[in-house]
């Protein structure tokens, strides 16, 4: 496959949604085992359990319904777009490389640019004491829900608002969107009960991670950003606790 075509495949939104859907499905099933621990950006699950009164068994039924609806939506969208399942392996390989290197890159920026002690960025909040299954499920949830909320939704939305409504040039619209979405992304990780205590080092690390994920989303596509996020969390929480 030519390089330009391979890049466009990774940035194909429909392909990205299909390839990332397993993260959502595995997370949804995992929630049944680890609830009340859920991803902070998963507002829908929190609402269903706390306000609608869904039980764990009915939540499984809801997950099946979500899968059926998703398949139906994909079938409709395929009339205008295509899905390339062969992009999954290259995306996983690329995401794995980013996941293993982003931490070192962020620490380098923190120390050389901002002069912040990288040891202050350690910590996983309440997740550090979670069991193996809980950490895996939360990592998968972070890959889907946080990238959907802060990159697919917030970053894209702010960039579109600044460029199309306010009239900013695309470069400045993207820069502002990166700052806003990354700030809120970092702040969300300090919300109780599983968030970290507020500290400069931790907040800065997460802010720069948000910028990193945002650039991946913008230039490499939703699937690359989502899998990089999930694999990075697995690496930090499980392989290198």
Describe, in plain words, how this protein is organized in 3D.
This protein is an all-alpha fold. The protein has one domain. It contains nine helices and no strands. The termini are far apart. The mean pLDDT is 87.
Short description:
With 241 residues, the protein is mostly helical. 76% of the residues lie in helices and 0% in strands. α2 (13-34) packs antiparallel against α4.
Task: Please specify the SSE layout and strand pairing.
Elements: H1 3-11, H2 13-34, H3 43-52, H4 56-77, H5 88-114, H6 132-166, H7 170-188, H8 200-220, H9 222-239
Helix pairs in contact: 2-4, 2-6, 2-9, 5-8, 5-9, 6-7, 6-8, 6-9, 7-8, 8-9
Helical percentage: over 70%
Number of domains: 1
Which H/E pattern describes the elements? HHHHHHHHH
Sheet of most strands: none
Q: β content, as a range?
A: under 5%
The counted number of beta strands is 0
Features:
mainly alpha; 241 residues
């Amino acid at each position: 496959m030519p390089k330009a075509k391979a890049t466009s495949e990774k940035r194909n939104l429909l392909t990205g949604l299909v390839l990332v859907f397993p993260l959502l499905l595995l997370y949804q099933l995992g929630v049944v085992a680890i609830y009340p621990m859920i991803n902070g950006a998963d507002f829908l699950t929190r609402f269903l359990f706390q306000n609608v009164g869904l039980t764990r068994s009915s939540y499984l039924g809801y997950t099946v319904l979500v899968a059926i609806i998703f398949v139906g939506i994909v079938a409709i969208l395929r009339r205008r777009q295509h899905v390339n399942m062969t992009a999954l392996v290259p995306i996983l390989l690329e995401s794995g490389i980013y996941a293993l290197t982003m931490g070192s890159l962020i620490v380098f920026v923190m120390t050389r640019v901002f002069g912040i002690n990288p040891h202050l960025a350690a910590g996983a909040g309440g997740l550090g004491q979670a069991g193996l299954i809980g950490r895996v499920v939360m990592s998968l949830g972070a890959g889907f829900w946080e990238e959907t909320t802060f990159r697919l939704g917030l970053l894209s939305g702010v960039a579109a608002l600044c460029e199309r409504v306010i009239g900013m040039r695309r470069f400045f619209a993207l820069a502002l969107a990166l700052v806003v979405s990354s700030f809120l992304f970092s702040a969300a990780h300090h919300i109780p009960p599983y968030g970290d205590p507020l500290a400069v080092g931790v907040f800065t690390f997460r802010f720069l991670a948000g910028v990193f994920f945002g650039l991946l989303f913008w230039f490499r596509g939703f699937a690359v950003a989502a899998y990089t996020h999930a694999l990075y969390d697995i690496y930090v929480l499980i392989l290198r606790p």
